């Protein structure tokens, strides 16, 4: 079976239309399969969202209501095919009304319900701002049209400078795509999140939606091709990166390449081992943050032991 076919089978297995129709906001239970060993990252507090679109679960987001933006999104990578869908931006009705339908729905053309506006970011927050809409779970990392469309919800988006979004961060997304599609043989679990400013939060148009100082991403691919080229030896089973979202940030976490093109200068991405990422997260959040169960090292043998 080719990798592509294998991934398609996996995608179809999860797309089998199973929908226990529990609440999708407030609990990761219906979408635990997107986390390695069904183990959501530990250490960050927020509102869990199982991202349901067209009655299927596509990924998971830990949302911050006070920031009106996500802490992280977690998803299964699948080899992309086809074009980026034309953006039809959606919102999460259950953030405003717990009894509402669990599917994300497109913003209506007319005026918005005030409870929806209060509960989350809306398109007006981003319009005429100096930030673009930065996907945490990018449409580029998915095979099916539905998986891709489902990423276009503002609950999966943070204010991201264009110099990052169209520059080094996009390069990172493409590099991860090439690395995983070439050498990951089973599931690849990806978690992408943000690091807030240490002091003095910034807000989109000085208003309602918090702006992150950095973005981070990490993957876990427990089953990979052992004959890796030398330069990819350190990239399995897990790897991580932090990207700058503010060209004026200091350089302790991510140094600046002074010779980068002007429009991308100061938006560098620094690849690093998972432990290094977790060290910076601990530093900024003042608590231990664990992205993957046993740092993605839990082997099948381990699972067996734990189950007995
Ligand atoms: C955005 O800016 C343009 C040009 O200044 C203005 O015409 C438009 O009304 C603004 N839109 C919003 C939603 O503020
Ligand atoms: C993602 O990876 C696939 C498989 O290697 C490749 O065909 C495709 O061009 C890549 N897409 C991007 C945007 O890098
Ligand atoms: C693993 O990688 C090697 C070298 O790139 C390749 O020849 C081999 O077919 C790959 N194996 C699998 C199972 O994809
Ligand atoms: C960075 O600093 C420059 C010069 O002070 C300022 O013009 C720019 O708006 C700042 N950028 C950000 C993202 O704060
Ligand atoms: C800095 O950016 C330049 C221009 O994009 C590139 O050629 C060079 O390799 C980069 N240097 C480092 C250390 O990444």
TrEMBL record:
GO molecular function, a single term: nucleic acid binding
Signal peptide: 1-23
Cross-referenced SMART domains: Endonuclease_NS, NUC
Alphabetical UniProt keywords: Signal
Domain DNA/RNA non-specific endonuclease/pyrophosphatase/phosphodiesterase: 55-270
Domain ENPP1-3/EXOG-like endonuclease/phosphodiesterase: 56-270
InterPro entries: DNA/RNA_non-sp_Endonuclease_sf, Endo_G_ENPP1-like_dom, ENDOD1, ENPP1-3/EXOG-like_nuc-like, His-Me_finger_sf
Protein name in the entry: Endonuclease domain-containing 1 protein
Organism: Larimichthys crocea
Lineage: Eukaryota, Metazoa, Chordata, Craniata, Vertebrata
